Amino acid sequence: QVQLVESGGGLVQPGGSLRLSCATSGFTFSLYWMYWVRQAPGKGLEWVSHIDKGGGSIYYADSVKGRFTISRDNTRNTVSLQMNTLKPDDTAVYYCNARNWAGNYWGQGTQVTVSS
User: What is the four-CA torsion angle of 12, 83, 104, 106, rounded to 10 degrees?
Assistant: First the structure.
């Protein structure tokens, strides 16, 4: 049974930091590209960042470049998103997503709210 479970969301003031984690099971984690995707209230899905299978190639949306850092641990089957200098526009549900030719799996999401 495939599972992706995000954690680490919450309420933070502008300028603050959060670290999201995604614990996975039920598939061969090291064979999947891992993505973070978010959905702000009333808006569609927005790609945030992704990392290749080995962690050697990393990509960020312009809106988060320089503030967010994605990483993965193939020994623990986890992917993380360190979010610094958070802005109100970062408020969204953040989803962990695993993709390759064999599958496309999603977590249930974790809420991040940036507000004073």
Answer: -20
Separation of CA 48 from chain center: 7
Residue with tokens 């973070």: 36
Q: Which residues pair with 49 in a beta bridge?
A: 36, 60
Do 108 and 6 meet the contact criterion of CB atoms below 8 Å apart?
A: yes
Look at residues 33, 59, 32, 56 and name the one whose alpha carbon lies nearest to residue 48. Answer: 59
Cα(104)–Cα(96) distance, rounded to whole angstroms?
Answer: 11
> Percent of the chain having pLDDT more than 90?
98
For the segment 8-32, what is each residue's pLDDT rounded down to a tens digit? 999 999 999 999 999 999 999 999 9
Q: Residue 96: is its pLDDT beyond 90?
A: yes
